[in-house]
Amino acid sequence: MGAIPLPPKKTIDEHRSAQAAFLRDQLEPVLAQARVRQRSVFFVDAAHFVQGSFLCCVWCLVRMFVRRTSGRWRYNVLGAWNGVTRERIRVTNETRVSSDTMVELMGRIAAHTTEPTTLVLDNARYQRCAAVEAEAKRLGIVLLFLPSYSPNLNVIERLWRFTKKKALRGKYYPDFATFRAAIDECLDRIPTDHREALASLMTLKFQTFDSDSFLTA
């Protein structure tokens, strides 16, 4: 017997309205403060890079074998992106992202900022929990949780897509150390080699959706 699908908690119109209200009433006000350097606003999310084959478009008249590594090694990056200064802070590991990882990231953010700080993040359990909320309160950090199903409002999601495209797509790494180093190198080169490419990508312009967009998605 298959699983019984649960009815959605919100309608399409309710999701669209929730995103619009969040952007207008909560996100834009703190970004306005950040633009005049009265507040630091970081967009926070984790990326889980699993070593394997990352294909791009390949056209070939004969059978083509793509090299790949065995195993399921995973490199986790919990990152924070300052939407105005473009400063990036990250914590990495090879096990899992937990509330302890989030607490470590907040400590690093607090050590780099002097003005009031807001983190924009989703509702992952390791972020929306008592330990993280208590540490944020101790550090004087405001946690601004996104509406459900709103990756379009989290700027750092674009950075993870860019990293996969630059460092992983169509590339083969013989071992996990090389794989991990390629990701780190891509992220380290953001203010230099990738600066121009990210200038138009990592803006504070957000894609929003009308009812027709949701229905065709």
From TrEMBL:
Residues 71-179 form the Tc1-like transposase DDE domain. It comes from the Bacteria. This is IS630 family transposase.
